[in-house]
Amino acid sequence: MKTLYLLPFLFLAITTFAQKQFVVQNGTAQTFETLVEAVDAASAGDTIYLPGGGFNFNSQIIDKQLHWRGVGHYPDSTLATGFTNVICDGYPYVLRFTKNASGSTFEGIYFQGSLQFGTVSNEEVTDVTIKYCRITGSITLRYNINLSNGFPDLNFHLLQSVVGTMKGNSGRNCLIENNLIFGTCEYFHYSIFNHNTFAYSSYHLSNSTNCRYTNNVFTYNPGLSGSSNCEFQNNTFNGGLPYNPELSTFTGSGNLTGVNRDQVFKSITANLWTFDYPNDYHLNDIAGTNENGDDVSILGIATDGTNPGIYGGAPIKQYKEGAVPYNPHVRTVDIANEAVNGELDVKITVAAQEK
Q: What contacts 232, CB < 8 A, 6 or more positions away?
């Protein structure tokens, strides 16, 4: 299946310097001039390749499984093409995905707005994966918090992305891993938060039960209002533990407290609470206090022996600075000013994320 990436890539490389084109592929490829046309024409299971640029997409309901592939959102990895920016146009600036969108995937896209999954009648969207994306608004995994059908199994995966507030709305079985999170995480159940960096100037967590938080960096009091039966392992906290280990239903071990948020990252050029591309979210070698009251380095304290936060975990899972998708994308282009002997010299440098 890897060779299927070649055809849409060639379309995108050619059209990068002409009119922007959107490629829809499922064995064969078609091109469209607008994202709306591409989404409307695509059949369930198709892949849509989005070029660099800003594209308005009116708030609408998408009710089919699609695989969205952009060129990335980091400026330094999209110099030749520009980053893929989908602008959710029209109040309430939300793209809504309903039941038949289950199984959809998203990679390498900057969503300027919010994403919402599910319907008011609790028809769930499941098996969604979001990777290498930036979402400026919120992500809502269910339309409401209604528990008439219990805690539905969403099998939602969010990986190596930059996001704001996330609302599980009583959904379960979510994996939130190696993300930069600038908002709250609400109403998650039986879910795992692993190797994330929380940089938000208010409470991070609320109204969640039976969740596991491992190897995360918390730069503010997590806040556990309405939560119970959660487990905390090998996290770093700016303040003290967010729970009383003797008088609550929460459990934990290997956590470090008193980690100075103003010193924890390599370099913050502006506001800690706002994502900025020049910021370096790698960790400094500073100390925190363990359960025995000893001061120990935060480096290497994760359950897997790596660092907590986004750059920890297995190499393939660690946050990638380029945040680029797996399909090849253009990094640099050098086009000669004139043809020689009827031939125009064109040099294109491409790259793709390792799987």
A: 213, 214, 241, 242, 243, 250, 251, 252, 255
Contact in structure between 194 and 287 (CB atoms under 8 Å): no
The answer to whether the CB of 23 falls within 8 A of the CB of 329 is no
Low-confidence spans in the chain with pLDDT less than 70: 1-19, 149, 322-355
Residues 102-147: pLDDT tens digits? Answer: 999 999 999 999 999 999 888 999 999 999 999 999 999 999 887 7
**What does the DSSP assignment read for 38-54?**
HHHHPPTT-EEE--SEE
The sign of the dihedral angle between the CA atoms of 67, 12, 110, 235 is: positive
C-alpha 130/C-alpha 165 separation (Å) is 15
* pLDDT at site 150: 77
**Into how many domains does the chain fold?**
1
How far apart are alpha carbons 147 and 211 in whole angstroms?
Answer: 18
- Look at residue 6 and tell me if it is in a domain: no
Q: Is 355 contained in some domain? A: no
Tokens found for residue 57: 């997409």
- Residue 242, preceding peptide bond in cis (omega within 30° of 0): no
pLDDT at 336: 44
Residue 301 falls inside a structural domain: yes
> Is position 61 within any domain?
yes
Strand bridging mode 22-26 / 53-58: unpaired
Phi/psi of residue 30, each to 5°? -130, 150
Q: Where in the sequence is the domain holding 136, given as residue range(s)?
A: 44-330
